[in-house]
Design the sequence.
């Protein structure tokens, strides 16, 4: 562990911010927040470890389970909550909701209701960086289930062929809805597929934020230097149901408990930094307080924001045509 | 204003060159566009001029369109060649759920200035999988624009406007159109993406058509006008998403008679939508039943005799005119 104190605090802040955001979504769901919501609890180390290596101008594409990626990329909590509330002040002005959350102001190019919908978008975004001679890197988050879409193959081949600055980050949480990864995927390690495209593939413990951080740092640096794409697979686990309200008949409660008690990424992180004493208890408490304040402010903002005007529903079907 | 005779393929190549010259964020990729220069030479020489901004791709249609969406969201202006529009089904999710939706579902945060060049229509003797006119699928998808040029000049003008647009545009160019000659203005040509054009003025009857088939319509009109000594109004839709209702309604109110004619299959075709628009908005002006002319409800057969029996031509348009002019 060679991260300085500010970085450690930053990582803790980001992981806990996602966790508390998701817990709040859960509390409000079915009341102020409606519609499908896929929570990221238990997987915070992946988005945090990866996005801690990104600059604001770097881009990410996300999935149906996109709150974590959005926040880790630095999105505004007020606008994120307001979107889940379906308010005009939300990131997508109430047009998107949880499954189509996006935060272009921080380079988050959108969650995606289509599993595997992000592969090509990320690849194309990386192509623009190359064509326009920009140094930005693109990260494509995807699930183990998504890895079996044909879009994976077409996108990764194209990125490898053209040496595009894109990192495909697989969040292998073992489950795709009710289907176990081992029942749908012919390899155990999805990153092993990288060999078939002649690119680097790394599999790490996705609940160890340091492991994710270090691997992501290496790959992102390489991509930024023109060394092309890679696949980073983070083995993790989804603590909540597939969606809020999922009866979860496909797995045992003890499986979930095991991960929750012995492999919580935030607890593991705290244990590690407490062992070295690099961050003091008051500093840890300070982060918690900051997040609670931020959350309360964001929820209040969402609650008192106005709902969209029905007559505006057709706004934004087309982008305005500027004289060019 | 001077005009120069050009084939469609060259006119669109000029559009590409001019727009790539003008804006460094414009680039183009597709299958076989460097060495071959595109199936109809519509990209020939472009790679020599613009290098890496002109790329050959793997046979990965889904990725081509999906990456186009991402490239556009990230600030590029990609033009993607689909080789044959017959393969557009492969890319459908990227069109339907990404390209058409991104701007709206993200509340206007990003835009998708992406052009899909989609050569469609009958490719003589290529049979079922290389000869379709699938444009109707895209009439009821909000968030995209769909244009169909009919001449070298509006091919150039529509393509340039499509590249400059802030919205995704599907540019359906008929395979038979690439070698068609026409006069093209020497100065800048920009054709609006949402306006129909009255290409022939008349009072006796309105014919709405678009694309390559407009030529068949004009042939029929020339014969009919001589015979009946009456004038027929011909409207070139140019855009089918959106459809320029105003121009159609105005004409039908004047003529009271309507034919819609296209190469695409009649059932569920653009003609059906135009007929419905007129029935809703100009019913009281209609003096005779509306006639739709289009291909029969069949995949395209190979044998020339069968092919001719399924496709439509100026003969069918002429027969429809005869019914309405007597
Ligand atoms: C193309 C497509 N197929 C199916 C679905 C329905 N669906 C939504 S999420 C999901 C599981 C995705 O699993 P994975 O990619 O592993 O992501 P995770 O939910 O585990 O984060 C399925 C099948 C969908 N949204 N899109």
Sequence:
């Amino acid at each position: 562990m060679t991260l300085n104190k500010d970085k450690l605090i930053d990582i803790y802040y980001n992981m806990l911010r996602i966790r508390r955001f998701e817990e709040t979504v859960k509390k409000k769901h079915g009341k102020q927040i409606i519609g499908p919501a896929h929570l990221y609890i238990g997987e915070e180390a992946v988005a945090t470890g990866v996005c801690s290596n990104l600059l604001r101008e770097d881009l990410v594409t996300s999935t149906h389970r996109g709150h974590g990626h959005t926040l880790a990329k630095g999105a505004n909590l007020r606008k994120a909550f307001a979107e889940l509330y379906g308010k005009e002040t939300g990131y997508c002005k109430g047009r998107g909701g949880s499954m189509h959350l996006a935060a272009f102001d921080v380079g988050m190019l959108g969650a995606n209701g289509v599993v595997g919908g992000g592969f090509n978008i990320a690849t194309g975004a990386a192509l623009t960086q190359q064509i326009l001679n920009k140094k930005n890197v693109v990260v494509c988050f995807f699930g183990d289930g998504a890895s079996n879409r044909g879009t994976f193959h077409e996108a990764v081949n194209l990125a490898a062929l053209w040496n595009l600055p894109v990192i495909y980050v697989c969040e292998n949480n073992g489950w795709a809805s009710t289907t176990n990864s081992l029942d749908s995927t012919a390899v155990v390690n999805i990153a092993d597929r990288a060999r078939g495209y002649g690119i680097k593939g790394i599999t790490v413990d996705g609940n160890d934020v340091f492991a994710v951080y270090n691997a992501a740092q290496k790959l992102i640096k390489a991509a930024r230097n023109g060394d092309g794409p890679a696949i980073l697979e983070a083995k993790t686990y989804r603590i909540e149901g597939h969606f809020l309200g999922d009866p979860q008949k496909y797995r045992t409660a003890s499986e979930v408990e095991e991960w929750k008690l012995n492999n919580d990424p935030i607890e593991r992180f705290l244990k590690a930094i407490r062992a070295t004493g690099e961050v003091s208890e008051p500093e840890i408490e300070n982060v918690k307080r900051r997040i609670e304040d931020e959350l309360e402010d964001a929820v209040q903002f969402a609650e008192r924001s106005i709902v969209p005007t029905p007559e505006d529903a057709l706004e934004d079907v087309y982008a305005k045509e500027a004289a060019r | 204003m001077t005009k120069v005779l050009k084939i469609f393929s060259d006119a669109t190549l000029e559009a590409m060159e001019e727009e790539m010259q003008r804006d460094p964020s414009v680039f183009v990729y597709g299958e076989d566009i460097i060495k071959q220069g595109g199936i109809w030479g519509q990209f020939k020489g472009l790679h020599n001029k613009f290098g890496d901004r002109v790329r050959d791709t793997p046979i990965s249609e889904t990725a081509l369109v999906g990456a186009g969406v991402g490239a556009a969201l990230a600030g590029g202006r990609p033009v993607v060649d689909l080789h044959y529009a017959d393969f557009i089904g492969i890319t459908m999710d990227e069109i339907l759920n990404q390209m058409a939706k991104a701007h709206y579902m993200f509340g206007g945060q990003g835009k998708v200035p992406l052009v899909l060049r989609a050569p469609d229509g009958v490719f003589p003797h290529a049979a079922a999988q290389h000869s379709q006119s699938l444009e109707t699928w895209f009439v009821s998808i909000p968030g995209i624009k769909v244009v169909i040029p009919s001449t070298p000049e509006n091919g150039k003008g529509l393509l340039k406007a499509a590249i400059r647009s802030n919205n995704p545009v599907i540019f359906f160019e008929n395979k038979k159109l690439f070698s068609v000659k026409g006069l093209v203005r020497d100065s800048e040509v920009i054709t609006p993406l949402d306006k129909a054009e009255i290409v022939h003025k008349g009072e006796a009857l309105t014919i709405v058509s678009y694309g390559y088939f407009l030529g068949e319509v004009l042939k029929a009109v020339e014969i009919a006008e001589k015979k009946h000594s009456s004038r027929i109004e011909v409207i070139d839709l140019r855009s089918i998403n959106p459809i320029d209702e105003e121009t159609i309604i105005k004409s039908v109110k004047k003529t009271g008679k309507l034919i819609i004619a296209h190469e695409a299959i009649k059932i569920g075709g653009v003609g059906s939508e135009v007929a419905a628009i007129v029935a809703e908005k100009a019913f009281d002006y209609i003096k005779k039943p509306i006639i739709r002319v289009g291909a029969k409800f069949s995949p395209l057969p190979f044998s020339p005799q069968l092919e001719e029996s399924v496709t439509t031509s100026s003969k069918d348009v002429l027969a429809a005119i005869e019914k309405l002019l007597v």
Observations:
- Chain B is about 35% helix and 20% strand.
- Chain B has two domains: 3-185, 197-325.
- Residues A 64-65, 113-116, 143-146, 173, 175-177, 238, 242 surround thiamine diphosphate (CB under 6 Å).
- Residues 213-228 of chain B form the longest helix (16 residues).
